[in-house]
Amino acid sequence: MIDTSPSLILVALCAVLMAVGVYLILERSLSRIILGFSSLSNGVNIGFLIAGGRAGAPPIVGQSEPSEMSDPLTQAMILTAIVITMGTTAFMLSLAYRSWQLDGNDEVQDDIEDRRLAVMAERDERLVRDEQSATDDDAAEVHDETEVDSDDRTVVGGEQV
């Protein structure tokens, strides 16, 4: 039977790569974002490797016992993740190169349209809050249509029931 307990070094390496990747992705420089994305994807690949358990026999039927084989799904997931990471990194590198050609730097700038929309959303949110408080005040003044008179009879819409 294969020992499936993860190696502590691999777990620590996965955590460090993912933490460094997230930190670098939050930077404003495209080159740091690309390095962070690569680091994060390598951390995820190591996480897949940890999830697959310890190495075992090749997953070929007839060469070894099924209980001793390594998990082929993990290998397929890592290979797919590597291909997707390579394509995404190539695309981000082309964006960074184009940004360098146009602006002379690779800093991500705030978009003026985003700022304008954020100001409009904040203004609309204040209007909605003001309207909501007015509606709450109106609702507090409305009384229940069913009232009980002094004879313990219920009055509904002006008629006694």
Description:
β2 and β3 (159-160) form a beta hairpin. A three-stranded antiparallel β-sheet has the order 1-2-3, with no helix packed on it. The termini are far apart. The longest helix is centred in the middle third of the chain and has 32 residues, at 72-103. It has 161 residues and is mainly α. 63% of the residues lie in helices and 5% in strands.
Task: Give a nutshell description of this structure.
By secondary structure, this protein is mainly α. The chain is 63% helix and 5% strand.
Label this structure with key terms.
63% helix; elongated; 161 residues; three-stranded antiparallel beta sheet; 3 strands; mainly alpha
Q: How many separate helices?
A: 4
Strand order of the largest sheet: 1-2-3
Could you estimate the helical fraction of the residues in percent?
A: 55-70%
Number of strands: 3
Indicate the topology.
Blueprint: H1 8-25, H2 30-51, H3 72-103, H4 112-141, E1 146-148, E2 154-156, E3 159-160
Helix pairs in contact: 1-2, 2-3
